[in-house]
Amino acid sequence: MNVLSKFPYWRQDFTASLVVFLVAVPLCVGVAVASGVPAELGLVTGIVGGIITGLMPGSSLQVSGPAAGLTVLVFEAVSEFGVSALGVIVLVAGLLQLAMGFSRVGRWFRAISVSVVEGMLCGIGLVIIAGQIYAAAGLKAPDTGLGKIAGLPGAVTDALSSTAALTSLAIGTGTIAIIVLWKRMPKAAQAVPGALAAVLLATVTALVFGLPVATVEVEGLLGVIQPPGSAAFGELASPAIWGTIVAFALIASAESLFSAAAVDRLHDGPRTQYDKEMIAQGAGNTICGALGALPMTAVIVRSSANVAAGAKTKASRVLHGVWLLLFAAALPSALALIPIPALAGILIHAGWKLIPFRQTAALWRSHRGEALILAVTAVSIVAVNMFEGVLIGLALSVIKTAWDASHNKLEVIDKGAGPVQVYLSGNATFLRLPKILGSLEALPQDRPIELDLTGLHHLDHACRTALENWAERHSEAGTEPVKVTETVLVPAAVVTATRGELQKAAGGAPPVYNGGPRG
After folding, report:
1. Is residue 290 situated within a structural domain?
2. Are 234 and 313 members of one domain?
3. Bigger pLDDT: 305 or 517?
4. Three-state secondary structure readout of 160-197
5. pTM summary value
């Protein structure tokens, strides 16, 4: 009793750990099979994510393990470099995450454009769905994302002409239907996660009726753990593998930290310490790599299940790792009974949930530029690959930010008599300088001009210099000196100056104040 008194929430954490364990088992196995590696490696990553990462500081309630979001990248890496090189890729990616965490880079991942992240998830979801449709029908999928999507009509034709393919597809379709409809079941039944219930029902159905469907191949937990050898480390001499390593590190980190931000909104407990969470993820991936297992990220499905089940401390996620270890050690033969189309159905459902339908619609209504970045990122991932697709999205985001940052408005008011009034507002940067100068140089040369800059949020050196030169040239035409009204870095202060005084102010001379900014 004295021991339990030190853990006041042990009942809640114990119950939550069982729920997360039941959610994690089919996902760990499904992600591993879809990634082209032995099923047990998914359980190994789940064990490390629960016990090792779970014990470390960072986020108290989010749960880590193999994620559907990395399935496409892992499959590409295994196809290109082989399973033996996977451990080295994951290990070095983990070390990069550790370096970023200790360098306090973790918090900066919060600055990544949300549209790029949503586009990444959308592209991943599309590739997962397309690829797992083939797996559900027992067919071989093309290697590329475009090939998978383009080959779907032919795959449907092949499936309709084969009894075995139709049977396999029926198992996969039934699995999806059970997951979707499980939420309508009585609360007592919902104590069992929908994905687990679907897999159990599919397994029982296949066994009872003796259906000719492929099942998971089992090699045993100790048989699949293969630390990378010297030949695998020799792959690091290839420049191509480093792009994959960087992709693993960046995408796994972004997914984990965005998941942490989402989980923080689900509970009132301690907030995530992003740099420490980055270190925890790096430590977990380093160990996963040393064991030759799959890469690890924080997984929002398991994390939200953990919070919803009433978890209060990190004990729940550590215990879920213990249950995974006991399951993998005591019941490995149970994996051999699971139909592969059932796992494909789970991943198709997971891929569907990755596609941000509501967010995309909201972006299109309010920020069409961001919606375009989301769409281009998703299409690029499908057409090329995940890493390059994300880079394209980030590049577009930077270009859009630069464009928005240089947005300004130039308004000319000419009443026919008196000075021409020019109002410049927004951000005056070198990117918009040609347009600004073109408008100013088109003004009458024989009239005095008043240039009001009080609406500017930013005036860079290039624009300031160009405006000074334009004012000087205009004054040389024999008109009244150009009068400039400019907000300076003093609250509610405005300077009115001739072109000569403007030049002095730019060099640090005290301005002449005459009231507050216009309107």
Report:
1. yes
2. yes
3. 305
4. HCCHHHHHHHHHHHHHHHHHHHHHHCCCCHHHCCHHHH
5. 0.73
